[in-house]
Amino acid sequence: MSNNDILFCRKAVVNRGSDTVAYYILHPVASSDSHNSLFLSALFVDVNLSEITQQKTIYIKTSLDELQALPLQNNIHAVFFLNAAELNEENFEILSDLRLQGHVLGISNPQVSDFSSEFFNIFTHVHFSLDRTSVNDVISRLAGPLLELKTIWVNKVETADQYSLLQEKLPVGQFSGNFIHKMTSVKGKRILAYQAILIDLLAALNNRETSPKKLAECIERDPTLTYRIIKLTHSAMYRSQFNVSNAQRAIEIIGIRDLIKWVSLVMLGSVDGKPACIFSMALSRACFCNNLSALLFPKLEGAFLVGLFSYLPSFLDEELEVLLKDLPLEENIKIALIESKGNLGGVLKVVKAYEAGQWSKIPFDHLIDREITQESLRELYVKSLKDAREMGAF
């Protein structure tokens, strides 16, 4: 696998209120400085990062040598984080010059006592990773005066206890990690009603004698769902020129094939107590699975639901096996979700590996047989982000 190929993913960074404030851009670990420099340069030149990250701040971990080789990007707000273990006071002039050029700098996992206040003031952001230190250690480090005015980003948040303590002790901090995808939800009647509607719709679709009228009766049990399905017919995806006044006519325009997809999106979008970034990530994964499956297995259906429903535990705080138990899904979809087996399971594994930046787990030697390269997979990922943004706006 060549590191000259652009391959990246984004992870949401949220504030105390769980709003997305930045995206952490992951890129391959290169074997030499020149490879990483080429990657960063290509990343800014070949990819519309402003569009992909919705004009939010982007966080990138890099080295001093890589950063020096990177031209200043005036149209993107990027913060470059340097590893404290690779820095010393002798780097002061170089770092000062980078600041004067306009670069925004952050420092990762520092021991504040190792640096002078003048040196430390070069950095506006400070990053701590909980796989390197504990929450209590992070909190104790923040007690020093040099960190009072810094933007603090804590990564690798893995548990509810870690997140709760950080929210309490670091009210203006920023957080990312696996637990950000699995926060405690506030369940209400609406999501339970949507689950019942979804079950009835899936059962009806499995009946070959089902008509649009029967499906409409399921949808019209909820006024909000009815409104959003009708509203969808006027989106750019369907371009209906008719005034649609009922769910049955909307179904005829949208098509029965797409109906479950949209009802599922409305259902997940209605969950209270979850950060908006989770819905965005679930939708991006669904689109990525759908687009990749279309290339690998053109006649295979269900990839969108596999990607979307893989996030069900993050929304509903329940094991996936339990959540799928009552859903009359096709067996290949359930196997893909629970056991990661079958063609759909393979698609999901590739997508998850890409999202996590686990490049070594992506079987490029097999994908190349289907004419899918590192570059084309990157383009597919970018397209999926755009598709997700369009779908999320309906």
TrEMBL record:
Per the UniProt record, the source organism is Marinomonas foliarum
InterPro entries per record:
HDOD, RNase_Y/CdgJ
The protein's name in its UniProt record? EAL and modified HD-GYP domain-containing signal transduction protein
The UniProt entry, under Pfam families, shows:
HDOD
Which superkingdom? Bacteria
User: Gene3D superfamilies, alphabetically?
Assistant: Hypothetical protein af1432
Occurrences of domain HDOD (ranges): 191-375
